[in-house]
Automatic annotation (TrEMBL):
One GO MF term: phosphorelay sensor kinase activity
Domain Histidine kinase: 259-459
Membrane topology label: Multi-pass membrane protein
Catalysis performed (reactions): ATP + protein L-histidine = ADP + protein N-phospho-L-histidine
Species assigned in the record: Tanticharoenia sakaeratensis NBRC 103193
Protein name per Swiss-Prot or TrEMBL: histidine kinase
Catalytic activity, EC: 2.7.13.3
Keyword Chloroplast: no
Alphabetized Pfam families for the sequence: HAMP (PF00672), HATPase_c (PF02518), HisKA (PF00512)
Gene3D superfamilies: 1.10.287.130, Histidine kinase-like ATPase, C-terminal domain (3.30.565.10)
Keyword vocabulary terms for this entry: ATP-binding, Cell inner membrane, Cell membrane, Kinase, Membrane, Nucleotide-binding, Phosphoprotein, Transferase, Transmembrane, Transmembrane helix, Two-component regulatory system
Length: 474
């Protein structure tokens, strides 16, 4: 059981694997650097023992009599390091005296040897082959064979010079440079590992968040796929259980309310029959008006619940064709409803539900304003915008934020026969949001009302419409 737990996909395991891989990659890169980094991968100059060797030879030559110094310098030579002593006034000593050197390199050489030599050298000369002093005849090395030699000259108190020549660079980065490189490498790896680790952890969380948003928009959708680390799978499983309970609640509520609305038709029918027996025309007329109003309310409620519980499948259809058909239907009834937009555009959605939405919006415009203009446009991302534009009086600004609330009516004085029960726009909004879109109303500056319906585009035929979070209207 413990072994299974260790192998199970968890957030802690992902983090440990990421850190472990980062450490392994870092170690591998360091090994590659030391193998193929050339001279830069060598130890710094303090760790090579070169400074101690130079200091020893300089102290020895300084203490020896002048006649013995050439032989001692020659004896101190190695395969990679040359020592040479030049008396005062010789060509090489004169060249060293008159040479010009970079102050930064001289200061570095002095600092490296100050603790070992004290005040023995009265002057330092540090240079490379780009310095004219390196061209002085008689230097004890082959220039063509060692083109990258380093030179260190130390003048003794008697004016003579000890010249140390490193035939090749025997050291890597200096200590300060090495620390800067290590800090830069460490910072880079911290950033890289942090990005990889955060991505490994954030990606399943982002997927879970997107699935939860889809669930918030359409509780009837399929449950969240239980993938990712164990902790997130448990969260998804809990949300799926909650979603199942909400779906059952919605189903029970819809069924109950639809049954109540349906059952109310029977007593209404009996009331109408009994009203036929009333002899007073005024009371009979008033009773029939109330019965008709209740009938309209019941029919509207039944239509709303029917839309809420509808299981219509999505299909691909021609959206401009649907809008054109709605336009022609109202033209046949004598209303000047026009369509402007593309001739053909494929869309995947619930055809009959969307037809009820656009028909309801056009009918509202005809009933309360003027026959509208229907426009359709598509942006660069493939999303659709359907606008229903009329030239009527518009809607009070205070009412725009409430028009989609159930049973809300802008004009409270309208009777039910002419104004409905206030569920048409609520139902339309629910249908549009189930397609992942949004709907809004706004008064036009030049007068009239514009209803804007946003529908997200589809990527290919045969796909179900997106059930994600509704995106804001542009």
């Amino acid at each position: 059981m413990i072994r299974i737990r260790v192998l199970e996909d968890t957030i802690a395991r992902r983090l440990a694997i990421t850190v472990g891989l980062a450490a392994a990659v870092t170690f591998s890169l360091l090994q590659l650097f030391f193998m193929f980094g050339g001279q830069w991968a060598k130890p710094n100059i303090e760790q090579t023992g070169l400074l101690e060797q130079v200091a020893t030879v300089v102290r020895m030559l300084d203490a020896a009599p002048a006649p013995d110094r050439p032989a001692l310098a020659d004896a101190a030579r190695t395969n990679s390091l040359r020592f040479d002593w030049h008396a005062r006034g010789t060509p090489i000593a004169t060249a060293l005296d008159n040479g010009h050197y970079r102050e930064k390199e001289v200061a570095a050489g002095r600092s490296f040897l100050a603790s070992s030599l004290g005040n023995i050298p009265t002057r330092f000369a540090v240079f490379q082959e780009d310095n004219p002093v390196s061209l002085t005849p008689g230097l004890p090395y082959d220039r063509s064979r060692y083109p990258n030699a380093y030179f260190l000259g130390l003048r003794l108190s008697d004016g003579s010079w000890i010249l140390c020549i490193a035939l090749d660079r025997l050291w890597g980065f200096y200590a300060t440079q090495r620390i800067i490189l290590q800090l830069a490498t460490l910072a880079a790896w911290i950033v890289i590992v942090s990005l990889i680790a955060s991505r490994q952890l954030s990606r399943p969380i982002e997927r879970l968040a997107a699935a939860v948003r889809r669930f918030g928009e359409k509780p009837q959708d399929a449950g969240i796929i239980e993938t990712g680390p164990r902790e997130l799978r448990e969260v998804a499983r809990t949300i799926n259980g909650m979603q199942a309970q909400i779906q059952r609640f919605i189903a029970y509520r819809t069924t109950m309310l639809a049954a109540i609305s349906h059952d109310l038709r029977t007593p209404l029918t009996r009331i109408r029959l009994r009203g036929e027996m009333i002899d007073v025309p005024e009371q009979q007329k008033s009773l029939f008006r109330d019965v008709d109003e209740m009938q309209i309310m019941i029919d509207g409620a039944l239509a709303f619940f029917r839309d809420d519980a509808a299981g219509e499948n999505s299909m691909m259809f021609d959206l401009p064709g649907l809008l054109t058909t709605i336009s022609y239907d109202y033209v046949d009834q004598g209303h000047d409803v026009r369509y402007e937009g593309p001739a053909k555009l494929a869309y995947v959605g619930r055809l009959f539900a969307l037809k009820r939405v656009f028909s309801n919006l056009v009918e509202n415009a005809i009933k309360y304003a003027t026959p509208p203009l229907i426009t359709l446009s598509q942006n660069t991302e493939g999303d659709y915008l359907v606008s229903i534009i009329d030239n009527g009086p518009g809607i009070p600004e205070a009412a725009l934020s409430h028009v989609f609330e159930p049973y809300f009516r802008v004009d409270k004085s309208r009777n039910r026969a002419s104004g409905g029960v206030g569920l048409g726009l609520t139902s339309s909004q629910a249908i549009i949001k189930s397609h992942g879109g949004d709907i809004e109303m706004r008064n036009r500056p030049e007068g009239g009302l514009e209803v804007r319906v946003f529908l997200p585009g589809q990527v290919c035929a045969g796909q179900t419409p997106p059930r994600g979070t509704a995106r804001a209207l542009p």
